[in-house]
Specification:
The protein has 407 residues and is α/β, with parallel strands linked by helices. The strands form two sheets. It has an eight-stranded parallel β-barrel, surrounded by four helices. It has 13 helices and ten strands.
C-alpha cells in the first residue's frame, strides 16, 4: 500500500529552522517572549475533547536508530525523522494524536534539571558498556543537536503540519535499569532509591524533582499538552508506605501538574491537555481501579477534580484480549477513556501482533466501551536485527473506527 502524506512538507532549510523554533520555547525574541506568535486568548477551562480515534505513542528510542528497510542500527537525517510522521499520518490514517516520550529516568535532550541519557558514561567507555543500537542512537541525537536541530521539536512540528494533536508523554518512574539510563539524582541519593533506577515517591524531594523535570520539558516544547505515564513503571513506593498516604502524595502531584499546565496555557493563550496512563498490575491481574489504588493512583479523583482530560487503560507490555474498559467507564464518567493495544503476546518474536490480532484487540476495546484506541510500542518490530520486519501500518487506517474495522 502506498502511504500518501496528508500535506506537503516544508523542505527548505529556512522553513525547517522556523518550524523547530516554533516548538522550542524561551529562545525567541517574539513579542510573547517564548517563541510563538499568539492568537486570541483561550481560558484555561475544559473544552470539547478532540476526536482521538487513534493515539500513537513514540517512545523516543528505537525510532532514532532504526528506519524502514534496515535490519541494523543506522545513521539518520532530517528526512528520516520526518518520515516517522509520514508513516503514521498518511491519507486515510485514523491517527489523530501523536505522543512522544522524552524521558526514561534520564532526559533525552540537553537538560539543566536532570541527566541527559548516556551522560554519565565516559565517551571512551560507550562501546564497552552499551549495545550497538544505543551507541548509534546517541550518535544520531548528538549529531542533530550539534547541527542546531532538535529532532524532537522536528517531530512535533511535522505532526502538527499533518493536522495531529501533539503531546509529550512523560514516564513517571522508569525502571529499565540500563547503564545508559543512570541519573545523577538517583546515584547521589541512596535513601530515595528503588531498584533499577526508580525512585521512592514517599519523599517530597523526589516528587519535587519529578515535577521540576515535568516543568522543564513542558516549557521547552510548545505542544498541545502532556500525558503522565504511570504505567512505566507502576511502582512508586516501598511496601511499608500506607496506601492512603500513597494516594494523597500522588494526587497532590497530579494536581500540581494540572496547575502548571493551567499557568503555561495562559501564557500561550490555549488550554493544555493533561492525560494519564493508568498503572497496570505488571500483568498479574487485569488493571482495575482497586489495583490502581493499591499502587497509589486514584484516576477517578483526577477526573472528578478536573485535573485530567483523558485516561488510558493499558496492560504492562504484553497484549491481553480481555483488557477491562467497561468497569472503568462505569467508575469514571467525566473524561474519555482509551484502551491500549500492546505490540506482542507472551512468548518470542513470533508472537508480535499481526494485523488480524491488532484488529481483534481493537474490536474488544470498542465493544467494551473504549472512546478510542491507544497504540504502544507499535514500531518495535524494527528493533530485532535480522529478525526485524515492518510494523503493520495499514491497520492505522481502520482500528480507530468501529465501522471501518467491520469491513
Amino acid at each position: 500500500m502506498i502511504l500518501i502524506p496528508r500535506s506537503t512538507f516544508l523542505t527548505a532549510a529556512l522553513s525547517l529552522a522556523i518550524s523547530i523554533a516554533i516548538l522550542l520555547t524561551g529562545d525567541s525574541q517574539s513579542p510573547t517572549g517564548n517563541g510563538v506568535a499568539r492568537a486570541n486568548p483561550v481560558e484555561s477551562a475544559p473544552n470539547t475533547p478532540p476526536n482521538r480515534r487513534i493515539l500513537y505513542n513514540f517512545d523516543g528510542d528505537s525510532c532514532f536508530y532504526t528506519r524502514a528497510g534496515f535490519k541494523h542500527p543506522v545513521a539518520l537525517n532530517v528526512e528520516d525523522v520526518k518520515r516517522l510522521i509520514d508513516e503514521i499520518a498518511y491519507e486515510d490514517s485514523q491517527v489523530d494524536t501523536m505522543l512522544l516520550c522524552l524521558n526514561a529516568a534520564t532526559m533525552y535532550y540537553p537538560t539543566k534539571v536532570g541527566t541527559m541519557r548516556g551522560a554519565l558514561t565516559p565517551r571512551d567507555q560507550r562501546a564497552e558498556k552499551w549495545p550497538r543500537r544505543e551507541q548509534q542512537r546517541v550518535e544520531n541525537i548528538e549529531r542533530f543537536f550539534a547541527q542546531g536541530i532538535d529532532p524532537f521539536a522536528l517531530m512535533f512540528s511535522e505532526a502538527r503540519q499533518h493536522g495531529l494533536e501533539v503531546l509529550i508523554t512523560f514516564r513517571m518512574n522508569d525502571a529499565h535499569g540500563n547503564e545508559f539510563l543512570r541519573t545523577k539524582f538517583w546515584e547521589e541519593n541512596p535513601a530515595y532509591q528503588l531498584p533499577d533506577g526508580a525512585l521512592d515517591f514517599s519523599h517530597k524531594a523526589v516528587r519535587d524533582h519529578v515535577f521540576a523535570l515535568i516543568e522543564e520539558v513542558t516549557r521547552r516544547y510548545d505542544t498541545d499538552g502532556l500525558e503522565l505515564d504511570f504505567n512505566r513503571f507502576p511502582t512508586f513506593f516501598r511496601e511499608s508506605e500506607p496506601h492512603e498516604l500513597r494516594i494523597e502524595k500522588i494526587n497532590a502531584l497530579v494536581k500540581r501538574v494540572r496547575e502548571l499546565l493551567n499557568k503555561l496555557g495562559k501564557e500561550r493563550d490555549k488550554r493544555l491537555v493533561l492525560g494519564a496512563r493508568i498503572p497496570s498490575n505488571y500483568g498479574a491481574t487485569p488493571p482495575t481501579y482497586e489495583t490502581s489504588l493499591a499502587i497509589g493512583c486514584d484516576p477517578a479523583a483526577w477526573a472528578r477534580n478536573g485535573w485530567v482530560d483523558f485516561l488510558v487503560v493499558a496492560e504492562f507490555v504484553l497484549q491481553r484480549y480481555d483488557l477491562p474498559i467497561a468497569p472503568w467507564k462505569k467508575q469514571i464518567t467525566q473524561v474519555p477513556i482509551y484502551g491500549s493495544i500492546e505490540c506482542a503476546e507472551p512468548g518470542g518474536l513470533e508472537n508480535r501482533l499481526t494485523p488480524a490480532k491488532y484488529r481483534r484487540a481493537a474490536r474488544h476495546l470498542w465493544d467494551d466501551g473504549a472512546d478510542g484506541i491507544y497504540l504502544f510500542n507499535f514500531f518495535t518490530p524494527r528493533e530485532h536485527g535480522e529478525n526485524s520486519h515492518e510494523p503493520p501500518f495499514e491497520v492505522l487506517g481502520d482500528l480507530g473506527d468501529r465501522q471501518t474495522l467491520k469491513q
